[in-house]
Amino acid sequence: MPLVRLSLLLLALVHLAPAGPATSGNRLTHLDEPNNPWQFDLGSPRLTTPQWIGEKGVEAVIVLAIDDMSGDGQHFRDYLTPIIERLKVIDGRGPVSITCNRPNPEHPNMQWLLNQGVSLETHTLNHPCPLLQHLDFIRASNDYHGCVDLLARIPNNKSVGFRFGCMDGQNTPSPRAYEEILGSTSEEGNFISMSTSVGVVFSPEDPVIPAEIFKPNSGGPDRFARYLTRGFVNYIENYPYPFVVGRKIWELPFVYPNDYTGQVLHGAQNPVTISDYKAAVDATVAKQGAVSLCFHAGNWMRNSQMVDIVDHASRRHGKKVKFLSMGEMHELMTKNLLMGNPIRRSDGGDNGIRILDVNNDGFMDVIVGNPDKRICRVWKPENGTWHETPFPAEITPSVRFGVVSRGGEAAMFVTGSDAINRFWIYRGNQWEQRESLTRGLKDVTSHRDGEDGGVRLRDLDGDGICEIIVGRKDSSAVYQLGESGWRKLPFSLPQHFPIVTRTGGDAGLRFTDLDDDGLQDLIFSNGTRYGTRMLESLAKGWTRVGIEGVREGDGVGEQHSRKPEVIPPIVRKDGTNNGAWLKRGHLYWQNEDTGAIFPHHIDLRSFSDLLGKQATQPRSPASSLHMMEVHEGLRVELVAAEPLVMDPVDLAWGPDGRLWVAEMADYPLGIDNKGTPGSRIAFLTDRDGDGTYDQRTLFCDGLQTANTVLPWRDGLLVVAPPKIWLLRDTTGDGQADRKEILYEGFGRGNEQHRGNGLTWGLDGWIYVANGDNGGTIRSTRTGKELTLGGFDLRIRPDTGQMEFATGVTQHGRNRDDWGNWVAGNNSNAWQIALEDHNLRLNPGVEQPPARHSLFGVVDLYPSSQVLSHYRGYQRPPPGSPGRLTSACGFTFYRGSLFSDVVAPSIYFSCPVHNCVSRREVSWNGVLMQTRRAEKEAQSEFLRSRDSWFRPTSLRTGPDGGLYVADLYRLVIEHPEWIDTGLTREMIADGRLRAGHDRGRIYRILPATGKAPQPPQLAGLSPEQLASALDSPNGWQRDSAHMMLTWLDQPAREAAIPVLRGILRHSSMPEARLQASSALSDLQGLEGKDLSVALADSHPEVRRNGLRIGNLTSDKLLVQATNLLKDESPQVQMQAAYALAHTDDKEVGSALGRFLLAHPDHAYLRASGLTAARKHIGAILATVLHEEHNASSLALVEAIITQLPPEEAGSVVPELIQELIDRLGKSRDNLQSTFSSAAGLMRISSESPQIPTWRTALAPVFMEARRTIKDPRSHLPHRLAALKLISQSGEPATDTSLLLSLLNPKTPSDLQVAIIPVLLREKNPAMIRSLIGRWGEHGPALRRAILDTLMSRTELTSLFLSLVTETMTELKASIDTGRRQLLLNHKNEEVRTRAQALLGGATTPHRQAVIAQYSDALGGEGDRLLGKEIFAGQCASCHRLDGVGRAVGPDLASLTDRSPRAYLTAILDPNQAITQNWMMFIASLRDGTTHAGAVAQETSSAITLVNIGGDRSTIPRNEIRSLASTGRSLMPEGLESSLDLAQMRHLLAYLQVAGTPRKVFANNAPELINQESSGVITLPASAAEVYGPSLVFEQRYRNLGHWGNQRDRAEWRFQVQKEGQFDLWINWALQQDTVGSSISLGVGQREISGAVPDTGTWDDYKWAKLATLSLTSGVHRMKAQSKGPLQSSFLIDLGQLKFVPTESGDFPNAVQWPGVQLHPR
């Protein structure tokens, strides 16, 4: 027996849990990167309030910090007075801190506030958001320091604090600002030493916080996190303690919520926000923390609400809470914590104070090491006191801390001024010098001339002990501590990766674990070069290269790169900090190059991006597991990996607990890249029951692309297209020795599009997905064949039965516990809204869409570096989402373990983006709705930073876990979508199949608790097997259900009583439902059982009863009939289908009432009409006796179309009289009257009584003729009249009438509808008449004439015979698509005449045509002209920017939008044709033909969409044949309509079109009206904003960040009074950002010119651009760049104005040279 046993050591069960604190060896590294204010988290040592407050009983501190005071402060005095008075009640003080902008230092209000106990703090002069922005560092520095100096001028004020503007909702703090601005002093010598700019968010992961705070009715786990805005990263979690930033600044975290984000989330002054404020106070007290509460003196929060918060804190916590101002807090910390030593020297410099956990007890301690004092203070939490001991050194740049002992205590290394190295370690409550720790370090010095010597202590290998790394320009080494001292390792830092510069400055090196292997990797980036290196081991060093590059410039300002493979500087070329920091698996930047320029003011690179080349390398199973991120409250476990499993694409468990795996080893081109099959089936066994699999048995190999497995009886069903196999092991050796083909004939195209899936339905059928490649399927057991076409399939393997099922699914057709099915393709998901077997009940009924779309191309948020080899793939900018292109495995979770963690959802794999995504499900009637979960707004349910993670099938396991099959490949794309040259390269070097010997299986479970033991179903008695259905686990119910159907009759009879008991008594509706299905499949569902199901309390059990039961008694009929009025629309719809099988008259009346009750509900109405087949008379009788309206009359028309001709005589006279009576009473419902009459005539056309009935309807015919002639009649009435006239039987009478309506005064829709009526017969005179007046016909009428003439061969032939060479306009009207149809017509005579008339076939050598047009790929096309060409040539089938029809592929969602890809698709559309856009020809029984792509296919009808974009649904009973042309719906030969210049314009447009409009607060596009003065103002706030970079800046009310050629803004405006207008522009542009040109287009004119600077971004100017005339009416203005940008930004645009000529008077008006006005 071929077995593989996996080492238990290799595959010990590994859990993926939330990342904990840093490895103990690196717990002091925060001292080496001091300007990162986001380093601390739940696992970090804390500085609690009792450590510094100096007041017994106080456990928490709250600072009320209010923002944005300017001027005299009167508003703030008024707003704060009630709050101050309430605070005074506590202890006589009014401690509030106000962060100020431009207060008047001399105003008395300043002294009044100070006397109340208020502190006045810094908030910048002009409130820039962010402080660093628009490439202007000096402005930011002046803004900050100017405010510091202003506050220093307020008498009696001593400001200590600062707050970054907008820090509560935007990413405004920056390490660069902390170090280079806050860490410096002003020209007047002033500085601050405290900030409150970093947010803290509480979550239930913190065990100290009371669980009641996170109750579901209070917001649940996201109670505080929900206040974080999109893209916001300025927060830490569960760390409400002060900490030091940059060695000079105390950071006091502000807590969430705040009033700004509160009003965004809940609305202003909402009590929910106030309740959350109070909860944040409670959490702070529980944590013994200190935080500020951020608020504003505006409408977001009433002052009485802050009083309420103070009341709550005082009432609930009493003396435990102390309210302080920032000034008071700073004073107490200096006094009680730092023993009077301020954090900054009097000159603003570093005062030698370090805050760190000295003794590794989880509490922060204090070291003071300056010339005046050297002392170490260690907190003793057990008695709440400080232990003080001398500190042996002065804190200088040469002092380095780390961990060198297993106890984790702090150690210190320093080279003294005497050049002697010394090592101290904190032991026994004191610092002890250890000479042994300096052995081996004789060549190491921690300083050079008093500057940083580039020595760092870092635990490189995660063993808890630091290594020593030396990194200077001239020397580098790494030392490891051993028993005899330090040993120099055989490697050093890579060349060009120093820690410090020659002068001791930061060189730009950072340590972090990029690949999550527990080893410290390197990131280096300065103004010269950048790179990443991964540590392989302490034997080999940083040998694995990730990214490497040398800059052409300095990488800052306009040279700040957004390319993922380029790392912006960490340190600038001038040695200054560039605002970079590491957090949450990313390297971020916030500086003047990103602020107000990049989305969310930041740039970022994920660790996956920084892996660079290493992302293309596979990981070990354990390493890959650690790269997983899963939904909060869940964990991931690795249960199998290579060599136990390889290439897994599907999983299924057998009754005996075996895990069967389909391994597609031959993907994508066979195991030899030559098509040789090599798929395997293996089963895995968990021998010791620990939840991991430890034994592999190879069951079968050599299959062709096996993709699905399902245990069946004593064997296994396997989908391996083109076959479905039944494999059996009859000898017990674990190998398949009996191989039977059950079904064959599935299409064998691209492996990603082959038949797949074996899903057990509640109806006892197994459902199989089409895969998109169709095929003619033959059942080997019955010999029956089905041409799959646009269907999926359902099968019964035992008998060989097969039927169509609603399709067509590419991969993943699965259901939930209730029988609701979902499916999808690579970019779309849909609900199977209508089952095909229900539609077959009455094929003649027009049905709504059988597939209901759930979502299309959605955003994805991978954490990996996406390794796409697709020829058109373009990586989105860092931080931007990807787009769904590889969805598969659509399914539901069908267990109970997630019920308290995750809402009901649809899950699907996204292997290209290395993630599993989900959408939460809700219901709107019978239709599903989905939405992205709020908790995953910018993440995914499961994602991996491992770029080889390729999830495929998702399965609910026997233990309730959600299992994920991971194919684990480097290349996931099929070579069909990869450049041929690259494919050849990857075959040659092995990359195409890299990973074929690997594979993983994961299991997702709740974060806590053990997984339930999986049940063993093998060997159970029938009674036990039936009992197994009473389970919350969907796998268990399905497996037991299937196994029951395998039993013989006596065993079935033993199981039936147990199933009846479950149906009646189970507490789980899922079990009751499936028990009823099992009873039905065992032929044990009696009438009383069905009655129980129909009366069940759960609607889905009732619905399933209707689905499976036969209504064999009056009682059941009554129950089912009553369910037409059920509270559940799904039950109502199923009740209608169930009643379709009966012919009871009362049922017919009930169906009539049902239809009348739901006239506008498409699906309920269709179900009622479907059921009407046996009830036409009773339904009509019911409907006709009701008061009629438009809906009921339309219903009558729909019903009578089902009336068999032989029954017409019994009802038609009554209906005719009803119509005549109605016409006599009112003409309000003419549309319904005419339509109903037309329907009657149509179904009665073969009756001998038709002349009598037409005569009886004479008044109606007369009114129809009057209506169609009357131009004042409503168009719907005229169209309905035409339908009736077409049934008049008097063509001679009506032809002249209809011909007379073919004139420009008649609505186009009516003219188009007339043509098929005129051309019903082969009438040469009529054709001559129509083509003879060709010049009078509009485009729509011409298309209608051509399409009608081409719909029947005899008409087509006659038409071509009548066209002469001189009819040039008519010939020109035959466009490329129709020309192709004629030239490829099935009739030889038609082809011959078409060739003679139209000049032969299109150029057969398409590559030659493409080569001819290749020059269109160069040069610059005009996008505006391209849009016009698109509208004329492409819009009949494609829609972009609101123009055209959505028939063909969605161009806006294409990933390859390169000019070459478009050129190939336009000129050679048949090169890569897919089934979805294949042209079919439907020949109808009436002799007509329809050509088009199949949009939907059911058993009742086919929907075709033709080359003009028109859809037609054709009942199958009207189709004689349906055949594929083998060609694309998009025609060849478009080169005949486009010259080279036009093609260049079209390509230019297609590359940028289709971008959705962006939405911003206070940006509301609207139609702008002309003012009474004649002026037309186009403000930024009314613009439609498009493109990747352009934004509406709410604060400045302008259009900014205009940094991409695809950015554009558009306005719509209406001119009432036409005339001559001057166009004025209001703009700003930084002096060093010139070089780009703007294009302003209105009508057929373009105004363009290079944008001049205005000095700074804040200096807005007015300029007159041009004078032009505007006619009355609606116009559109479009602003965009003129060609590619030649600078970082185009413009900041405030507004445009059209001003009547020479009447404009604008301040700051300047000249704008070089403006051109020219036609577009």
Description:
This protein is an alpha+beta fold and 1720 residues long. 25% of the residues lie in helices and 25% in strands. Helix 1 runs parallel beside helix 7 (303-317) and helix 21 packs across helix 23 (1176-1184). Mean pLDDT is 90; it is low at 1-23.
User: How much is the radius of gyration in Å?
Assistant: 38 Å
Low-confidence stretches at least 5 residues in length (pLDDT < 50)? 1-23
- Principal-axis shape equals globular
The number of E-state strands comes to: 86
Class from secondary-structure proportions: alpha+beta
Which percent range fits the helix content? Answer: 25-40%
Biggest pleated sheet: 7 strands, mixed
Strand content: 25-35%
Number of helices: 41
Indicate the mean pLDDT: 90
Short description:
The chain is of the alpha+beta class. It has 41 helices and 86 strands.
Give the topology:
Blueprint: E1 3-5, E2 15-16, E3 60-71, H1 74-91, E4 96-103, H2 108-115, E5 119-122, H3 137-152, E6 161-162, H4 175-182, E7 194-195, E8 199-201, E9 235-237, E10 243-245, E11 249-251, E12 254-255, H5 259-266, H6 271-287, E13 290-296, H7 303-317, E14 321-323, H8 326-337, E15 353-356, E16 365-369, E17 374-380, E18 385-390, E19 400-403, E20 410-415, E21 421-427, E22 430-433, E23 447-448, E24 451-452, E25 455-458, E26 467-471, E27 476-482, E28 485-488, E29 509-512, E30 521-525, E31 529-534, E32 544-550, E33 580-583, E34 586-589, E35 603-606, H9 607-610, H10 621-626, E36 628-630, E37 634-641, E38 648-653, E39 659-663, E40 679-685, E41 695-703, E42 708-712, E43 715-720, E44 723-728, E45 738-746, E46 756-760, E47 766-769, E48 775-779, E49 785-787, E50 791-796, E51 801-806, E52 814-815, E53 821-824, E54 829-832, H11 836-839, E55 851-855, E56 859-860, E57 882-883, E58 888-892, E59 905-910, E60 915-924, E61 927-931, E62 942-944, E63 951-956, E64 962-966, H12 980-989, E65 1000-1006, H13 1022-1027, H14 1034-1045, H15 1049-1065, ...
Parallel strand pairs: 3-4, 3-13, 3-14, 4-5, 6-7, 7-11, 8-9, 8-12, 73-78, 82-85
Antiparallel strand pairs: 1-41, 2-37, 10-11, 15-16, 16-17, 17-18, 19-20, 20-21, 21-22, 23-24, 25-26, 26-27, 27-28, 29-30, 30-31, 31-32, 33-34, 34-35, 36-62, 37-65, 38-39, 39-40, 40-41, 42-43, 43-44, 44-45, 45-48, 46-47, 47-50, 48-49, 50-51, 52-53, 53-54, 54-55, 56-57, 58-59, 59-60, 60-61, 60-62, 63-64, ...
Helix pairs in contact: 1-7, 6-7, 14-16, 15-16, 16-18, 17-18, 17-19, 18-20, 20-22, 21-22, 21-23, 23-24, 24-26, 25-26, 26-29, 28-29, 29-31, 31-33, 34-37, 39-41
